[in-house]
Amino acid sequence: MVSGLVSEMRWSILPLFVVFSMLVLQVVTENEAFASDSLKPVITTPEDIYVTSKIPTSVFYSVTAVDNTNKQIPVICDKGIGHIFNPGKTTVRCYTVDSLGNEARTSFVVTVGYEIVKIPNWFKLTTGYWVNNQMSDTEYAKTLEFLLENKIIHVPYSNHSKEITNSEIPIWIKTNSQKWIQGNASDDEFSIGIQWMLERGLVKI
To answer: What are phi and psi of 8, to 5 degrees?
Structure first.
């Protein structure tokens, strides 16, 4: 009878032991995963911001950050939301750190000016097709017209076009474009070619 009682107690205790072991294993696994987390948080900022103004202007934007579990965490920028930016280009630097000390930093540029140049970096790929003769002058000009009309690209130019009969884009513009693609010319330098085409009617908006 005693041995039977002991046997029953053994079987009744066994499930509790199994459950306890599983809980301990789960906690250990979670702690190991937590301790081994070395992934940097991800900061989401706006694209470079362009504001047309001749005077210092307040600029509002949204910046967020999440850790590797997609949990939102605080992010700090050295130029706060609504900061008054002077005319010209200003770099905004942002920083965040998660609960395990993993840091992340990023930045974007705010440009305030009357005659500003706005050219997205991805346009280098399109320009590369044209430079490498994978896109005709006409196709490239039409692409520029679309992007200018929709204010995806912005350059200062004269509205009084000097009509020319030759629709071929000069080789010096293609040469400057190649330098821009390679990072050897600034957006402002690249925009000179676009302004030239606008003023001479090769590109019309």
So the answer is: -65, -40
- In sequence order, the β-bridge partners of residue 109 are 91
Gap between the Cα atoms of 78 and 88, Å rounded: 17
**Model pLDDT, residue 38:** 81
For residue 111, the cross-strand partners are 50, 89
Q: Which two tokens stand for residue 191?
A: 């925009």
User: What gap in Å lies between CA 102 and CA 40, rounded to an integer?
Assistant: 5
| DSSP, residue by residue, 68-127 | TT--B---EESS-TT-EEPSEEEEEEEEEE-TT--EEEEEEEEEEESS--B--TTHHHHH
Cα torsion angle, 120, 81, 56, 89, sign: negative
Count of residues for the chain?
205
Report how far apart the first and last C-alpha atoms of the chain are (Å, whole number). Answer: 100
Q: Is the pTM of this model over 0.85?
A: no
CB 73 within 8 A of CB 102: no
